[in-house]
Amino acid sequence: MGNTDNSFEEEIKERIAAGNPAYHVHKKLFTSKLISRNVELQLYNTLIRPTVTCASETWVLNENMINKLMIFERKIMKKIFGPTRSDDGYWRIKSNQEINDTLKGQSIIGFVKNKD
């Protein structure tokens, strides 16, 4: 579709913009206590991620584009994994590092790079 970094960046912005409504349509599934986290992750991998990574084989990723994709994914993962109770008894949102550790290398960036 594009042949310059700017056009790839625009395409990624458009894909993320398409991913947001895809998430919001299914938001109740991702925040439901009746659905296990594994099922929520499968839903993300089959409903949201393909929307965002469509035609990603042609992308040339730079640091800025990687950050935008990671921010999008972490936003959804924080909804899926929810808050964590800390040692002092207070609830807190998981950190980015905790999200990355939980994904164990199965991030959207790894998916895009392996899709080539």
Keywords:
116 residues; mainly alpha; two-stranded antiparallel sheet; 3% strand
Written description of the protein model:
With 116 residues, this protein is mainly alpha-helical. It is built from six helices and two strands; from the N terminus they run H-H-H-H-E-E-H-H. It has a two-stranded antiparallel sheet. It is globular and about 50 Å long. The relative contact order is 0.14.
Secondary-structure topology with pairs:
Elements: H1 5-25, H2 27-31, H3 37-53, H4 63-81, E1 84-85, E2 91-92, H5 96-103, H6 108-115
Antiparallel strand pairs: 1-2
Helix pairs in contact: 1-3, 1-4, 3-4
- Percent range of helical residues: 55-70%
Number of helices: 6
Radius of gyration: 15 Å
Could you say which overall geometry the principal axes of the C-alpha atoms support?
globular
Beta-strand percentage range: under 5%
- How far apart are the termini? 15 Å
Strand order of the largest sheet: 1-2
- Number of domain units: 1
Number of strands: 2
Structural class of the secondary structure composition?
Answer: mainly alpha
Can you give the mean pLDDT?
A: 89
Residue stretches low in confidence (pLDDT < 50, at least 5 long) are none
The string of secondary-structure elements, in order, is HHHHEEHH
How can the largest sheet be summarized? 2 strands, antiparallel
